[in-house]
């Protein structure tokens, strides 16, 4: 597959009262056209900040200090603000975690969909009347695409008049309004019940297949990744600790943190048995010494782990950040 997004050695820092926090530390990744990349890790691991950096949405006191971000052959960091605004929404779109807070409560769904089309859709006719009809038709088409019933009448409604699952569908419709090449879905199933979660994820997979777009699915749920993603990238404390084809990472994890995540997933066969949690807490990133960031929680840690650990090849199209790869069964 042709490469669509390539990020190399990305670093994003935040100046805080406690000190300098490097929320994204040397992250490299790639996404091919039509591919679905799953990004997993605990809260605070840097997942959302990584892709906010890709979108150019990091604001002060945050800043990108290093790295390259190539999208469709162009370096995004070299773009002017106007060029980046044109790319964001038209070619790259992102859905946020909480649809209720991401949507504007004072505007109807139709108005919010129209804003995206007016800003980015170059195929709209020039005449005012024809333009208005074309925008309405496209808004109806997008709501129908994401499975909202009676789309004509729903355009005049406000976000609070929809259920949580329907609001998430509206967010997806807004993101897909201009048929982007890449959709970044940041926790698209947050606060939804299990049935609605499944519907939203199936919707994203179906639209991905129909439009041929690439998807980055940011989630805490390795079960979701196993079912919907081609490749997976595991993040911990601002760094990528493992990546590779989903089936291989799920069945043969090569990093202790990935193993810990998999071991903590409840399964029907474990009914009545306690879960196996990962002991300890994510380290404070302020003034963190150069070392393996997982070593304080790792059952395989040794004194030699108290050094900065690079990514190592862990098999075909696989990498892992661990000095003890040879000890992995």
Description:
The chain is an alpha/beta fold. It has a domain at 99-179. 33% of the residues lie in helices and 24% in strands. It contains eleven helices and twelve strands. The protein has helices at residues 47-55, 81-90, 99-102, 109-120, 128-145, 151-154, 164-176, 194-211, 222-228, 246-251, 256-263, and strands at 3-16, 19-32, 36-40, 62-71, 74-75, 92-95, 182-186, 214-219, 231-236, 239-245, 312-315, 318-320. The strands form two sheets. The protein has an eight-stranded mixed beta sheet with strand order 6-7-8-3-9-10-12-11, sandwiched between helices. Strands 2-1-4-5 form a four-stranded antiparallel beta sheet. A hairpin with a 2-residue loop joins strand 9 (231-236) and strand 10. The two termini are 31 Å apart.
Structural class: alpha/beta
Distance between the termini: 31 Å
Unreliable stretches (pLDDT < 50, length at least 5) are: none
N-to-C SSE string, H for helix and E for strand: EEEHEEHEHHHHHEHEHEEHHEE
Mean pLDDT: 91
Biggest sheet layout: 8 strands, mixed
Computed over alpha carbons, the radius of gyration is 21 Å
In brief, what are we looking at here?
This protein is of the alpha/beta class. It has a domain of 81 residues.
Summarize the helices and strands and which ones pair or pack.
Blueprint: E1 3-16, E2 19-32, E3 36-40, H1 47-55, E4 62-71, E5 74-75, H2 81-90, E6 92-95, H3 99-102, H4 109-120, H5 128-145, H6 151-154, H7 164-176, E7 182-186, H8 194-211, E8 214-219, H9 222-228, E9 231-236, E10 239-245, H10 246-251, H11 256-263, E11 312-315, E12 318-320
Parallel strand pairs: 3-8, 3-9, 6-7, 7-8
Antiparallel strand pairs: 1-2, 1-4, 4-5, 9-10, 10-12, 11-12
Helix pairs in contact: 4-5, 4-7, 7-8
């Amino acid at each position: 597959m042709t490469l669509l997004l390539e990020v190399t050695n990305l670093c994003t820092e935040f100046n805080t009262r406690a000190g300098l926090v490097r929320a994204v530390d040397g992250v490299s990744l790639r996404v091919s056209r039509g591919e679905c990349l799953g990004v997993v890790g605990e809260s605070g691991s840097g997942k959302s900040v990584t892709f906010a950096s890709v979108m150019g949405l990091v604001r002060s006191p945050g800043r990108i200090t290093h790295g390259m971000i190539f999208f469709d052959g162009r370096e995004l960091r070299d773009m002017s603000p106007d060029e980046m605004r044109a790319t964001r929404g038209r070619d790259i779109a992102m859905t946020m975690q909480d649809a209720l807070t991401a949507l504007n409560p004072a505007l109807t769904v139709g108005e919010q969909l129209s804003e995206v089309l007016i800003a980015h859709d170059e195929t709209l006719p020039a005449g005012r009347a024809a333009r208005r009809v074309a925008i309405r038709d496209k808004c109806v088409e997008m709501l129908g695409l994401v499975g909202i019933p009676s789309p004509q009448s729903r355009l005049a409604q406000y976000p609070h008049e929809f259920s949580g699952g329907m609001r998430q569908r509206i967010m997806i419709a807004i993101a897909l309004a201009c048929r982007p090449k890449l959709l970044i879905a940041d926790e698209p199933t947050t606060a939804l019940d299990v049935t609605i979660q499944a519907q939203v994820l199936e919707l994203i997979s179906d639209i991905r297949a129909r439009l041929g777009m690439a998807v980055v699915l940011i989630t805490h749920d390795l079960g979701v990744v196993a079912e919907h993603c081609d490749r997976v990238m595991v993040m911990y404390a601002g760094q990528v600790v493992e990546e590779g084809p989903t089936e291989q990472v799920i069945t043969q994890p090569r990093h202790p943190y990935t193993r810990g995540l998999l071991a903590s997933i409840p399964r029907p066969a474990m009914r009545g048995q306690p879960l196996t949690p990962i002991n300890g807490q994510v380290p404070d990133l302020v003034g963190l010494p150069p070392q393996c960031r997982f070593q304080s929680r790792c059952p395989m840690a040794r004194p030699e782990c108290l050094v900065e650990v690079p990514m190592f090849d862990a098999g075909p199209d696989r990498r892992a950040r661990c000095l003890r790869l040879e000890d992995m069964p």
